[in-house]
Backbone:
């Protein structure tokens, strides 16, 4: 019987970037806000005989606040689109170098720093870590703070700096993420950090909310399965941990390299070797730390 074809995990940066949706301002929410403001203005003028122009004044203030917020969102979206265009050119090494040069003049721009760190992480994790650590979270826009925390926490987990990763993960707010994919990725990151710092029950609660079955995209699956491995191992549920490792091996055997490096528990290393032997990939493994 022929072996089932192994699912292909895309780890190529250019392919991952190409799948990203270009940031845009959605027309429907804008129209809904404008309609709401129109209703408020009508209501404000209707109430003038009863409360004077106080109501109109309040509506005017709300309109100014909404306009300011709209301009802020438009500027953020435009900057995000421009940076994504730069990163889309990083399809080869020369393109990657050009992108890094374009992102080097950050001038305190957190978006550029995040993008630069993403590119650097492919070949120089320490440089990526230094770039992220240089960001002052207190001065970073609120909508980007969790992105900085998540990227830096992932680098810390790669280097077994689990306490520092946990400190960052605890401050990530999943309710601030509008897209389901990012929520699942960050939940997996948080679950792993909890499991590796003595709180596997907290990790399991997250993994029950963001399941592998509901998140079929390659990178989301990998992160959730990896978190399951650490969580179930910490809970002494060896069978469930082995099942998660086996699923990772079926996606891409090289992903198990992170369980074989120095500092990993002997039990996880043993499970990883068993899974690799079962898929016939043990001797060929190239260590890849996720």
Residues:
């Amino acid at each position: 019987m022929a072996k089932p074809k192994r699912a292909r995990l895309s780890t190529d940066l250019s392919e991952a970037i190409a799948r990203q949706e270009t940031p845009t301002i959605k027309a429907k929410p804008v129209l809904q806000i404008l309609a709401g403001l129109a209703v408020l203005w009508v209501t404000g003028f209707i109430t003038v005989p009863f409360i004077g122009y106080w109501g109109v004044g309040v509506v005017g203030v709300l309109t100014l606040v909404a306009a300011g917020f709209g301009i802020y969102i438009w500027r953020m979206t435009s900057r995000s689109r421009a940076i994504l265009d730069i990163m889309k050119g990083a399809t080869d090494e020369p393109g990657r170098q050009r992108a890094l040069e374009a992102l080097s003049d950050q001038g305190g721009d957190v978006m550029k720093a995040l993008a630069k760190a993403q590119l650097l992480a492919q070949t120089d994790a320490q440089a990526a870590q230094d770039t992220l650590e240089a960001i002052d979270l207190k001065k970073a826009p609120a909508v980007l703070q969790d992105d900085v925390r998540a990227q830096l926490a992932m680098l810390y987990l790669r280097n077994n700096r689990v306490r520092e990763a946990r400190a960052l993960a605890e401050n990530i707010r999943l309710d601030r993420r509008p897209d389901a994919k990012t929520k699942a990725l960050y939940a997996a990151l948080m679950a792993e950090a909890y499991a590796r710092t003595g709180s596997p029950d907290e990790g399991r609660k997250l993994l029950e909310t963001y399941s592998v079955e509901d998140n079929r995209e390659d990178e989301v699956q990998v992160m959730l399965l990896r978190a399951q491995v650490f969580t179930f191992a910490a809970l002494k549920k060896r069978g469930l941990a082995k099942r998660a490792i086996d699923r990772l091996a079926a996606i891409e055997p090289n992903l198990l390299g992170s369980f074989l490096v120095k500092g990993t528990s002997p039990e996880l290393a043993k499970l990883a070797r068993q899974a690799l032997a079962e898929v016939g990939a043990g001797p060929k493994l190239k260590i890849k730390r996720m």
In short: Residues 13-104 form one domain. DSSP finds 14 helices and no strands in the chain.
